[in-house]
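Budget justification aside, the reviewers requested a transparent look at the raw inputs and outputs of the sequence design task funded under Objective 1. We therefore reproduce one unedited record. The lines immediately below are the C-alpha coordinates for a 391-residue chain.
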Protein backbone atom coordinates (compact mmCIF):
# COMPACT_ATOMS: atom_id res chain seq x y z
CA UNK A 1 0.00 0.00 0.00
CA UNK A 2 1.12 3.55 -0.61
CA UNK A 3 1.68 5.10 2.80
CA UNK A 4 -0.07 8.37 2.09
CA UNK A 5 -3.70 8.57 3.21
CA UNK A 6 -4.08 11.91 1.45
CA UNK A 7 -6.41 12.07 -1.57
CA UNK A 8 -3.91 12.21 -4.48
CA UNK A 9 -5.98 14.95 -6.10
CA UNK A 10 -4.90 17.40 -3.39
CA UNK A 11 -1.19 16.78 -4.07
CA UNK A 12 0.99 18.59 -6.61
CA UNK A 13 1.18 16.84 -10.01
CA UNK A 14 4.71 15.44 -9.61
CA UNK A 15 3.82 13.93 -6.22
CA UNK A 16 0.53 12.58 -7.50
CA UNK A 17 2.32 10.58 -10.19
CA UNK A 18 4.32 8.74 -7.54
CA UNK A 19 1.54 8.26 -4.97
CA UNK A 20 -1.20 7.04 -7.30
CA UNK A 21 -2.15 3.51 -8.39
CA UNK A 22 -0.21 1.84 -5.59
CA UNK A 23 -3.09 0.54 -3.51
CA UNK A 24 -2.74 -2.92 -4.99
CA UNK A 25 0.88 -3.72 -4.23
CA UNK A 26 1.02 -6.38 -1.57
CA UNK A 27 3.89 -7.54 0.64
CA UNK A 28 5.56 -4.12 0.55
CA UNK A 29 6.65 -4.54 -3.07
CA UNK A 30 6.74 -1.09 -4.67
CA UNK A 31 5.13 -1.91 -8.03
CA UNK A 32 1.97 -3.94 -8.49
CA UNK A 33 2.17 -7.49 -9.82
CA UNK A 34 1.53 -8.19 -13.49
CA UNK A 35 -1.58 -10.36 -13.37
CA UNK A 36 -2.00 -12.56 -16.42
CA UNK A 37 -5.66 -13.44 -16.13
CA UNK A 38 -8.60 -14.82 -18.05
CA UNK A 39 -10.53 -17.04 -15.62
CA UNK A 40 -11.18 -15.57 -12.20
CA UNK A 41 -12.61 -18.07 -9.71
CA UNK A 42 -15.64 -17.65 -7.47
CA UNK A 43 -15.42 -19.41 -4.11
CA UNK A 44 -19.11 -20.42 -3.83
CA UNK A 45 -22.28 -20.86 -5.87
CA UNK A 46 -23.70 -17.91 -3.96
CA UNK A 47 -20.73 -15.69 -4.92
CA UNK A 48 -21.07 -16.78 -8.55
CA UNK A 49 -24.78 -15.86 -8.57
CA UNK A 50 -24.27 -12.50 -6.87
CA UNK A 51 -21.29 -11.41 -9.04
CA UNK A 52 -20.25 -8.92 -6.42
CA UNK A 53 -16.57 -9.75 -6.11
CA UNK A 54 -14.11 -7.06 -7.20
CA UNK A 55 -12.55 -9.12 -10.00
CA UNK A 56 -14.86 -11.27 -12.13
CA UNK A 57 -13.28 -12.00 -15.48
CA UNK A 58 -9.92 -11.13 -17.09
CA UNK A 59 -11.32 -8.60 -19.54
CA UNK A 60 -13.37 -6.87 -16.83
CA UNK A 61 -10.33 -5.77 -14.85
CA UNK A 62 -7.42 -7.06 -12.78
CA UNK A 63 -5.28 -5.46 -10.06
CA UNK A 64 -2.82 -4.52 -12.85
CA UNK A 65 -5.44 -2.71 -14.95
CA UNK A 66 -6.87 -1.05 -11.83
CA UNK A 67 -3.44 0.32 -10.89
CA UNK A 68 -2.68 1.79 -14.32
CA UNK A 69 -6.21 3.15 -14.82
CA UNK A 70 -6.19 4.79 -11.40
CA UNK A 71 -2.80 6.35 -12.13
CA UNK A 72 -3.94 7.74 -15.50
CA UNK A 73 -7.15 9.15 -14.01
CA UNK A 74 -4.99 10.86 -11.38
CA UNK A 75 -2.57 12.23 -13.98
CA UNK A 76 -5.49 13.74 -15.89
CA UNK A 77 -7.50 14.80 -12.85
CA UNK A 78 -10.47 12.98 -14.35
CA UNK A 79 -13.23 10.84 -12.88
CA UNK A 80 -12.06 7.46 -14.19
CA UNK A 81 -9.99 5.91 -17.00
CA UNK A 82 -9.82 2.82 -19.17
CA UNK A 83 -6.91 1.55 -21.23
CA UNK A 84 -7.07 0.22 -24.77
CA UNK A 85 -4.56 -1.69 -26.94
CA UNK A 86 -3.47 1.45 -28.85
CA UNK A 87 -4.07 5.17 -29.00
CA UNK A 88 -6.13 4.68 -32.13
CA UNK A 89 -8.30 2.08 -30.35
CA UNK A 90 -8.82 4.57 -27.51
CA UNK A 91 -10.14 7.13 -30.03
CA UNK A 92 -12.33 4.76 -32.06
CA UNK A 93 -13.82 3.14 -28.95
CA UNK A 94 -14.72 6.57 -27.59
CA UNK A 95 -16.36 7.67 -30.84
CA UNK A 96 -18.29 4.40 -31.24
CA UNK A 97 -19.48 4.52 -27.64
CA UNK A 98 -21.26 7.85 -28.18
CA UNK A 99 -22.17 8.10 -31.89
CA UNK A 100 -25.13 6.52 -33.65
CA UNK A 101 -26.43 6.65 -37.25
CA UNK A 102 -27.57 10.16 -38.16
CA UNK A 103 -25.22 11.86 -35.71
CA UNK A 104 -22.90 14.65 -36.80
CA UNK A 105 -19.26 14.68 -35.69
CA UNK A 106 -17.25 17.89 -35.85
CA UNK A 107 -13.66 16.79 -36.33
CA UNK A 108 -10.61 19.03 -36.23
CA UNK A 109 -8.89 19.26 -39.64
CA UNK A 110 -5.43 18.76 -38.08
CA UNK A 111 -6.38 15.41 -36.53
CA UNK A 112 -4.01 12.41 -36.40
CA UNK A 113 -4.43 10.93 -39.91
CA UNK A 114 -5.63 7.39 -39.01
CA UNK A 115 -8.51 8.93 -37.04
CA UNK A 116 -9.51 10.75 -40.23
CA UNK A 117 -9.45 7.43 -42.09
CA UNK A 118 -11.69 5.87 -39.43
CA UNK A 119 -14.21 8.72 -39.77
CA UNK A 120 -14.18 8.68 -43.58
CA UNK A 121 -14.65 4.90 -43.89
CA UNK A 122 -16.13 2.95 -40.99
CA UNK A 123 -18.04 5.79 -39.33
CA UNK A 124 -19.32 6.98 -42.69
CA UNK A 125 -20.55 3.48 -43.58
CA UNK A 126 -22.39 3.39 -40.27
CA UNK A 127 -24.24 6.60 -41.07
CA UNK A 128 -22.28 9.10 -38.99
CA UNK A 129 -21.54 12.36 -40.80
CA UNK A 130 -18.08 13.80 -40.13
CA UNK A 131 -17.38 17.43 -40.91
CA UNK A 132 -13.87 18.88 -40.58
CA UNK A 133 -13.27 22.30 -39.04
CA UNK A 134 -10.28 24.63 -39.03
CA UNK A 135 -8.31 24.08 -35.78
CA UNK A 136 -7.98 27.85 -35.26
CA UNK A 137 -11.73 28.57 -35.27
CA UNK A 138 -12.16 28.83 -31.48
CA UNK A 139 -15.73 29.84 -30.53
CA UNK A 140 -16.63 30.37 -34.21
CA UNK A 141 -16.94 26.61 -34.43
CA UNK A 142 -20.54 27.25 -33.31
CA UNK A 143 -21.40 28.12 -36.94
CA UNK A 144 -20.80 24.45 -37.82
CA UNK A 145 -22.76 22.94 -34.96
CA UNK A 146 -26.06 21.32 -36.00
CA UNK A 147 -28.89 19.93 -33.89
CA UNK A 148 -27.45 16.47 -34.65
CA UNK A 149 -23.91 17.35 -33.55
CA UNK A 150 -23.01 14.87 -30.84
CA UNK A 151 -19.24 15.36 -30.50
CA UNK A 152 -16.79 18.19 -31.16
CA UNK A 153 -13.34 16.60 -31.34
CA UNK A 154 -10.10 18.49 -30.66
CA UNK A 155 -6.44 17.59 -30.86
CA UNK A 156 -4.34 20.34 -29.36
CA UNK A 157 -1.80 21.07 -30.52
CA UNK A 158 -2.15 19.11 -33.76
CA UNK A 159 0.60 16.50 -33.69
CA UNK A 160 2.15 17.62 -36.99
CA UNK A 161 1.27 21.25 -37.58
CA UNK A 162 1.03 22.28 -33.91
CA UNK A 163 -2.07 24.50 -33.96
CA UNK A 164 -3.10 25.20 -30.37
CA UNK A 165 -6.87 25.11 -30.08
CA UNK A 166 -8.96 27.36 -27.87
CA UNK A 167 -10.52 24.40 -26.07
CA UNK A 168 -12.49 26.48 -23.50
CA UNK A 169 -14.15 28.54 -26.28
CA UNK A 170 -14.89 25.42 -28.33
CA UNK A 171 -16.28 23.66 -25.26
CA UNK A 172 -18.56 26.58 -24.49
CA UNK A 173 -19.99 26.51 -28.02
CA UNK A 174 -20.36 22.72 -27.97
CA UNK A 175 -22.00 22.53 -24.57
CA UNK A 176 -24.48 25.25 -25.46
CA UNK A 177 -25.69 22.92 -28.22
CA UNK A 178 -25.62 19.81 -26.03
CA UNK A 179 -22.55 18.29 -27.74
CA UNK A 180 -19.64 16.59 -25.97
CA UNK A 181 -16.01 17.65 -26.27
CA UNK A 182 -13.37 14.97 -26.77
CA UNK A 183 -9.72 16.09 -26.66
CA UNK A 184 -6.69 14.13 -27.87
CA UNK A 185 -4.20 15.17 -25.17
CA UNK A 186 -1.22 13.10 -26.37
CA UNK A 187 1.18 16.00 -27.05
CA UNK A 188 1.07 17.27 -23.47
CA UNK A 189 1.64 13.80 -22.03
CA UNK A 190 -1.37 14.51 -19.83
CA UNK A 191 1.00 16.40 -17.57
CA UNK A 192 0.98 19.83 -19.22
CA UNK A 193 -2.68 20.25 -20.19
CA UNK A 194 -5.73 19.49 -18.13
CA UNK A 195 -8.63 18.66 -20.42
CA UNK A 196 -11.28 18.84 -17.70
CA UNK A 197 -10.19 22.22 -16.32
CA UNK A 198 -10.59 23.58 -19.87
CA UNK A 199 -14.11 22.35 -20.51
CA UNK A 200 -13.42 18.98 -22.14
CA UNK A 201 -15.58 15.97 -21.27
CA UNK A 202 -13.26 13.17 -22.36
CA UNK A 203 -9.48 13.01 -22.77
CA UNK A 204 -7.95 10.44 -25.10
CA UNK A 205 -4.29 9.50 -25.26
CA UNK A 206 -1.83 7.61 -27.29
CA UNK A 207 -0.08 6.48 -24.10
CA UNK A 208 2.24 4.80 -26.61
CA UNK A 209 4.03 8.15 -26.78
CA UNK A 210 5.13 9.96 -23.59
CA UNK A 211 3.37 7.88 -20.96
CA UNK A 212 5.02 4.60 -21.99
CA UNK A 213 8.00 6.79 -22.92
CA UNK A 214 10.43 4.12 -24.13
CA UNK A 215 9.10 3.13 -27.59
CA UNK A 216 8.46 -0.42 -26.38
CA UNK A 217 4.68 -0.76 -26.03
CA UNK A 218 1.44 0.34 -27.66
CA UNK A 219 -1.25 1.69 -25.34
CA UNK A 220 -4.30 3.93 -25.41
CA UNK A 221 -6.09 5.59 -22.54
CA UNK A 222 -9.48 7.25 -22.19
CA UNK A 223 -10.36 9.40 -19.20
CA UNK A 224 -13.89 10.68 -18.62
CA UNK A 225 -15.64 13.15 -16.38
CA UNK A 226 -18.37 11.80 -14.14
CA UNK A 227 -21.19 12.53 -16.60
CA UNK A 228 -19.65 10.72 -19.58
CA UNK A 229 -18.18 7.77 -17.66
CA UNK A 230 -21.23 5.39 -17.56
CA UNK A 231 -21.90 5.58 -21.30
CA UNK A 232 -18.22 5.26 -22.18
CA UNK A 233 -17.66 2.33 -19.80
CA UNK A 234 -20.69 0.52 -21.20
CA UNK A 235 -19.47 0.96 -24.78
CA UNK A 236 -15.90 -0.02 -23.89
CA UNK A 237 -17.03 -3.23 -22.19
CA UNK A 238 -19.57 -4.08 -24.88
CA UNK A 239 -16.87 -3.80 -27.56
CA UNK A 240 -14.61 -6.15 -25.59
CA UNK A 241 -11.81 -3.68 -25.10
CA UNK A 242 -8.93 -4.31 -22.73
CA UNK A 243 -5.12 -4.41 -23.04
CA UNK A 244 -2.29 -6.83 -22.34
CA UNK A 245 -0.97 -6.97 -18.77
CA UNK A 246 2.71 -6.57 -19.64
CA UNK A 247 1.94 -3.47 -21.68
CA UNK A 248 -0.16 -2.10 -18.83
CA UNK A 249 2.80 -2.62 -16.54
CA UNK A 250 5.14 -0.77 -18.92
CA UNK A 251 2.60 2.05 -19.09
CA UNK A 252 2.49 2.40 -15.31
CA UNK A 253 6.26 2.19 -15.10
CA UNK A 254 6.65 4.92 -17.73
CA UNK A 255 4.14 7.12 -16.00
CA UNK A 256 6.21 7.25 -12.81
CA UNK A 257 9.01 9.17 -14.53
CA UNK A 258 7.02 11.25 -17.03
CA UNK A 259 7.52 14.41 -15.01
CA UNK A 260 11.34 14.41 -15.17
CA UNK A 261 11.44 13.09 -18.73
CA UNK A 262 9.09 15.77 -20.05
CA UNK A 263 11.06 18.49 -18.31
CA UNK A 264 14.23 17.43 -20.16
CA UNK A 265 12.41 16.96 -23.48
CA UNK A 266 11.02 20.48 -23.11
CA UNK A 267 14.31 22.10 -22.11
CA UNK A 268 16.20 20.60 -25.05
CA UNK A 269 13.36 21.17 -27.52
CA UNK A 270 13.11 24.85 -26.61
CA UNK A 271 16.85 25.26 -27.07
CA UNK A 272 16.92 23.47 -30.44
CA UNK A 273 13.76 25.20 -31.71
CA UNK A 274 15.27 28.59 -30.80
CA UNK A 275 18.41 27.69 -32.72
CA UNK A 276 16.35 26.53 -35.72
CA UNK A 277 14.57 29.89 -35.71
CA UNK A 278 17.87 31.62 -36.47
CA UNK A 279 18.69 29.38 -39.46
CA UNK A 280 18.24 30.65 -43.00
CA UNK A 281 17.09 27.20 -44.20
CA UNK A 282 14.02 27.41 -41.95
CA UNK A 283 10.97 29.39 -42.99
CA UNK A 284 8.96 28.88 -39.79
CA UNK A 285 9.24 26.99 -36.53
CA UNK A 286 5.94 25.47 -35.40
CA UNK A 287 6.34 25.12 -31.63
CA UNK A 288 3.89 27.00 -29.42
CA UNK A 289 6.35 27.10 -26.50
CA UNK A 290 8.47 29.68 -28.36
CA UNK A 291 7.50 33.34 -27.89
CA UNK A 292 6.47 34.91 -31.17
CA UNK A 293 5.35 31.56 -32.62
CA UNK A 294 1.77 30.95 -33.76
CA UNK A 295 -0.30 29.71 -30.81
CA UNK A 296 2.14 30.88 -28.14
CA UNK A 297 -0.37 33.08 -26.30
CA UNK A 298 -3.00 30.34 -26.06
CA UNK A 299 -0.33 27.84 -25.04
CA UNK A 300 0.85 30.17 -22.29
CA UNK A 301 -2.72 30.61 -21.05
CA UNK A 302 -3.71 26.93 -21.02
CA UNK A 303 -0.58 24.74 -20.77
CA UNK A 304 1.91 24.35 -17.94
CA UNK A 305 4.70 23.08 -20.19
CA UNK A 306 5.61 21.76 -23.63
CA UNK A 307 6.73 18.37 -24.78
CA UNK A 308 9.64 17.67 -27.14
CA UNK A 309 7.63 17.41 -30.36
CA UNK A 310 7.65 20.30 -32.83
CA UNK A 311 7.81 20.95 -36.55
CA UNK A 312 9.49 23.32 -38.97
CA UNK A 313 8.57 24.50 -42.45
CA UNK A 314 11.72 24.65 -44.55
CA UNK A 315 12.29 27.10 -47.38
CA UNK A 316 11.46 25.17 -50.59
CA UNK A 317 14.13 22.54 -51.34
CA UNK A 318 14.55 19.78 -53.92
CA UNK A 319 13.58 16.19 -53.02
CA UNK A 320 17.22 15.20 -53.47
CA UNK A 321 18.38 17.82 -50.98
CA UNK A 322 15.79 16.69 -48.43
CA UNK A 323 16.96 13.10 -48.93
CA UNK A 324 20.57 14.14 -48.33
CA UNK A 325 19.56 15.99 -45.18
CA UNK A 326 17.58 13.06 -43.74
CA UNK A 327 19.77 10.14 -44.79
CA UNK A 328 22.92 11.62 -43.28
CA UNK A 329 21.49 12.32 -39.83
CA UNK A 330 23.28 10.24 -37.22
CA UNK A 331 21.41 10.94 -33.99
CA UNK A 332 17.95 11.64 -35.43
CA UNK A 333 16.27 8.58 -36.93
CA UNK A 334 13.25 8.38 -39.20
CA UNK A 335 10.25 6.65 -37.72
CA UNK A 336 6.68 7.29 -36.69
CA UNK A 337 5.43 7.41 -33.15
CA UNK A 338 7.42 9.56 -30.70
CA UNK A 339 7.67 10.26 -26.98
CA UNK A 340 10.53 7.81 -26.36
CA UNK A 341 14.06 8.63 -25.22
CA UNK A 342 15.38 8.86 -28.79
CA UNK A 343 15.35 11.75 -31.23
CA UNK A 344 13.40 11.47 -34.47
CA UNK A 345 12.90 13.51 -37.61
CA UNK A 346 10.29 12.79 -40.31
CA UNK A 347 9.10 14.81 -43.30
CA UNK A 348 5.34 15.22 -43.71
CA UNK A 349 2.73 16.76 -46.00
CA UNK A 350 -0.29 18.13 -44.13
CA UNK A 351 -3.55 16.80 -45.55
CA UNK A 352 -6.43 19.23 -45.12
CA UNK A 353 -10.01 19.45 -46.32
CA UNK A 354 -11.53 22.31 -44.27
CA UNK A 355 -8.83 24.82 -45.12
CA UNK A 356 -6.03 23.99 -47.56
CA UNK A 357 -2.43 23.95 -46.31
CA UNK A 358 -0.95 26.79 -48.34
CA UNK A 359 2.75 26.41 -47.56
CA UNK A 360 5.19 25.29 -50.22
CA UNK A 361 8.23 24.23 -48.20
CA UNK A 362 8.83 20.73 -46.89
CA UNK A 363 7.65 20.21 -43.33
CA UNK A 364 9.84 18.30 -40.90
CA UNK A 365 8.67 17.01 -37.54
CA UNK A 366 11.31 16.69 -34.85
CA UNK A 367 11.01 14.71 -31.67
CA UNK A 368 13.74 15.85 -29.31
CA UNK A 369 14.88 12.93 -27.19
CA UNK A 370 17.00 12.79 -24.06
CA UNK A 371 20.40 13.16 -25.78
CA UNK A 372 22.56 16.25 -25.11
CA UNK A 373 21.11 19.09 -27.20
CA UNK A 374 24.60 20.21 -28.31
CA UNK A 375 25.08 16.89 -30.10
CA UNK A 376 21.61 17.13 -31.65
CA UNK A 377 22.26 20.67 -32.92
CA UNK A 378 25.56 19.54 -34.45
CA UNK A 379 23.70 16.70 -36.23
CA UNK A 380 21.10 19.07 -37.72
CA UNK A 381 23.80 21.61 -38.61
CA UNK A 382 25.70 18.99 -40.61
CA UNK A 383 22.38 18.14 -42.28
CA UNK A 384 21.90 21.75 -43.34
CA UNK A 385 25.39 21.73 -44.82
CA UNK A 386 24.44 18.68 -46.93
CA UNK A 387 21.23 20.48 -47.91
CA UNK A 388 23.17 23.51 -49.07
CA UNK A 389 25.73 21.40 -50.95
CA UNK A 390 22.93 19.60 -52.85
CA UNK A 391 20.70 22.54 -53.78
C1 LIG B 1 0.20 8.21 -32.23
C2 LIG B 1 -1.03 8.99 -32.03
C3 LIG B 1 -2.28 8.37 -31.93
C4 LIG B 1 -2.45 6.89 -32.10
O1 LIG B 1 -1.75 6.16 -31.14
P1 LIG B 1 -1.28 4.64 -31.40
O2 LIG B 1 -0.93 4.16 -30.04
O3 LIG B 1 -0.13 4.73 -32.34
O4 LIG B 1 -2.44 3.91 -32.00
C5 LIG B 1 -3.37 9.16 -31.67
N1 LIG B 1 -3.28 10.50 -31.55
C6 LIG B 1 -2.09 11.13 -31.64
C7 LIG B 1 -2.03 12.61 -31.49
C8 LIG B 1 -0.94 10.40 -31.90
O5 LIG B 1 0.23 11.04 -32.02
Amino acid sequence: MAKSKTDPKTLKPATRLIATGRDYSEHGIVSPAVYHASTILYPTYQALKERKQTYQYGRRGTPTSRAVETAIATLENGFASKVAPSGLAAVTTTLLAFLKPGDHLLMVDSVYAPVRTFCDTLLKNWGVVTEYYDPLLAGAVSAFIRPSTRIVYCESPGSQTMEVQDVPAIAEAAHKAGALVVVDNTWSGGRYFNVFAHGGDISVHAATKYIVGHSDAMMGAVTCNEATWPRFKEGYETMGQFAGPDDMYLTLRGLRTIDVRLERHMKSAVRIAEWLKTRSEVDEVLYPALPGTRGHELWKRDFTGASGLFSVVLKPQSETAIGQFLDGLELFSMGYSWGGFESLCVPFKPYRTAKPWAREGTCLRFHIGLEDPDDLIADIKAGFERLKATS
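The first helix runs from residue 13 to 19. The radius of gyration is 22 Å. Computational costs for records of this kind are itemized in the attached budget.
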